Amino acid sequence: MPTVSVIVPATTANLGPGFDCLGAALTLYNQFTFSTAVSGLTAAVQIEVTGLEADRVKTDASNLAYQAFARLFEHLQQPAPPVQITIHLGVPLARGLGSSATAIVGGLVGANTLAGHPFTQRELMDLAIVIEGHPDNVIPAFLGGCQLTASGQDRGWVTCEIPWHDTIVPVLAIPDFELSTAEARKVLPPNYSRADAIFNIAHLGLLLRGLEAGREDWLAAALQDRIHQPYRETLIPGYGAVRSAALAAGAYGLVISGAGPTLLALASAPTATAVQAAIATAWKEQSIQAAVTVLEIDRQGAHL
Fold this sequence. Notes:
This protein has about 300 residues and is α+β, with helices and mostly antiparallel strands.
C-alpha cells in the first residue's frame, strides 16, 4: 500500500477537573495523506499543506506529522522511506484543540499502515503519549469519544471510555488569538494544597457520573477546578464575561479547552444555540472576534 490517508479528530482536554488525564474527540478534523511511491521523490520528505492556517505549518523534516512518522520506523530499527505528505487542516493551531495530537496520531497511524501494521493500537497510543508528553489529547484522537487515561501498575497506561450522554452538547468558542501550551503551563504553581487535591478528586468523580447520566445539577458543580483554570483564566481576555454570559444563557458550565484560549461550554440541545449566541456577543463586547460553533462528540477517532 504505497499511499494511505488518515483522518484525525480535534480534541478538547481537561474538561475542568480532568487535568492531563481526560479528553474528548470533536467533529472537527485534520487529514494526513502519506505517499511513498511518488515518481522523482528524492528528499526524505516533501510536504504540502492546505486548509486553515496552512501557511503557518512547517514543510520540512521538523514537521510534527513527519517526526511521528519517522519515529515509528525508528522503533522498527528501519530507516523511514522517502515520503510525500499532504495535510489538509480543519483544526485551528495553538488554540487548545489538540492540533499537535492530530499530527502525532496521523503520523503514527500512517507509518504503521505503510509498514504493514507491525504495532498494535495500544503500542501506537503508548508511543503517542511519549511524543506528546501526556495522554489527554492523543488518546481520544485515536479512539474517539471521551477517554480517561491513567498510569498502570506496570508503568504502562490504562484507558477507560467515559460514556457521554446524548443530551450533552459541546459549544466551542475559538477566539482569534493564540495561547501556547508552554505559556499556559508556566503560570501553574509547582505544588498544590491537600484541599485543592481533594476538591479536584471529588469534582472529577462527579464529572464522570454527570457525563454518563446527563445530570445538569451534577455537571454544573462538577466542571469546577482548582488545578489549572484559576491560573490560566488570567491569560484569556474576557474569560469572566464569556463564562457569565454562557451560564446566563443556560450552559451547564464553561471550561478552558486544553491549554486554551478556546473555551468549551456544555449545554442541552434546547439551549445550545442560545449559549452559542451569548458567547459570541460577550467576546465581541470585549473587542475579540471568535468563531463559536455547536459541535458533536466524534465517536470514531482516527481512521483510514
